[in-house]
Every structure is written in structure tokens, then in C-alpha cells.
Amino acid sequence: MSQLAQKPSPAAPEAWRTLYPFASHWLTIGEHRYHYVDEGEGSPLLFVHGNPTWSFHWRGLIQAWRGSHRTIAPDHLGCGLSDKPQDWSYRLADHIDNLVTLVRELDLRNVTLLAQDWGGAIGLGAALEEPDRFSRVVLFNTGAYRPWFIPWRIRVCRAPVLGKLGLQGMNLFSRAALRMTMNRRTLSPVERAGYLAPYHNWDARIAVYRFVQDIPLTSDHPSYAKLAEIEDNLPRLRDKPFQFVWGMRDWCFTPACLDKFLEIFPEADVHRIADAGHWVVEDAQDELVPVVEKFFERHPLDRAAE
Question: The CATH number of the domain where 268 resides is what?
């Protein structure tokens, strides 16, 4: 059999929706529609994605827990099924403001935050704005502090001309993520189609590029002060149970990033997955679901606070 014949067939258009069988909900923020999934009942689990993903990233965990919790997963503006305005800021502070607006509009209380990649800074930023609404935190391969290193694969994407052409024009960042973020398994054609579906043309990929641009390398970057503010205020969240589930084969948020968090939250629950990559939720879902469930059992919520 030829090498060409061995390649998987591309997924049929919209086939990915079989993996994402959720009703769409919308919140209007300013002039833009902010999309979110809202499934199940009970204490809320708030899933916050990073770049270049969207709420599709959380589909397995939503289905695992929507029978026992209210599972809410927004798409950041410019991502997933949310609007993709070409003239919006796409700054960290504004993503946080949008998430805070969602939490307040839905009047969420006793929230468990689950976040990955950029979702960590955005979600923790929201928790710092509304600490009384958040009760537990579960983080997967993320960061929320001044970056002290930037992987070369990310630096290349920041090149002023080549970066924009590569990310917005050729969708290279999203396509590379499908292969560079996992170590245990390979995404199916349908899964790959689901990740790429919202980012089908130049305009639709604006947030993918702008998230990369928003990484603050120096103190004069517009988002540096906000990220520093989050880092400096993280100790205010020490009264909440924290869990870190970390893919140790992550080239982006390396084990050193986990160690940085543990300096701030030394009492946190930690589960390291030695052979999992950056998308640990995809790479090791079968392992992490029972791990997180045990964390929930060890730290039950105060029902009177709901």
C-alpha cells in the first residue's frame, strides 16, 4: 500500500458536530456575540480555553460531568463560534472582562474553574475580580505570571510579516497544534476538523494571531502590567483548593511552569502525567477524569453558598 493510501481520509463537512452535540448560547457584549455552552445542572464548572482552541477542547469533560454539574464553556471573542471582530483589542484584560461579564450575567456562584493555556491567565484574572464566586480551581498546563522564556516555536510566529501570513493566511499555528500538543495519541480526522472549523479564513483567524502577539515579552507591552497584576495577586486565592494536572512532555508550559505555580500554592493537589503533552485534556482524558473527580470529593462545595 502506498504512503498516500495510508493517510486517513478527511472528515466530511460538519462531521465534527457529532463530537460536539451541545446547544449554543449567546451573550451580547458591546456589539458582539459571545458564544458559550451551558449543559446540565448543579454547581457550575467553568471551562476556559486557550489558543488556538475553543470550547470544542472541553467536549469530553462536558459530557463526562454534565450529568452531575452545570458545565459552562465560553469561546473567547474571536474564537470558536463567537464573533470575530476585526477592530477589537484582543488584549488579556479585555478577555478577562468578557469572562467576568459572563459570570455576572449568569450569576454563577460556587464556581469551579478549569482552565488551560491562555485560559489560566484569563480564568484566574476573572477569579481575582470575583473571588467570592469561585470555590475551586483546576489548571491544566498553563501560566499566569510574567513570562521568563518564550519557546522558539512561538517566537517564530511573532515575526511581524511572516507570522501574520503564516497564522492568518495559512493557518499554520492551528494546524501545527494538532500534532505538536500531544504525545500519547493522535487526533482523528473528525477531531482535527472540529478544531479547525471556526478558523476557516483570514478574518476568522484574527484571534489566533492576536493571542500570539499578546504575549508580553517586555515590560512596555500593553498586557505586561495585567499579567504582572495577576501574578502578584495570586496569593489572594490561597484559601481555595487548587489542583494542577500537568502533561510533563509539554514544550510550551514546561514542568518549570508547574513548579512556578507550586511556589505560590504549595498545598495544591498535583497530578503529573509523565508522557502527556500540552493538550493534556486530549492526550490523557481517561486518566485525568477520575483524578479530578477525586479532587472534587476531597473538597466538597459549601452548598449554602450557591
Answer: 3.40.50.1820
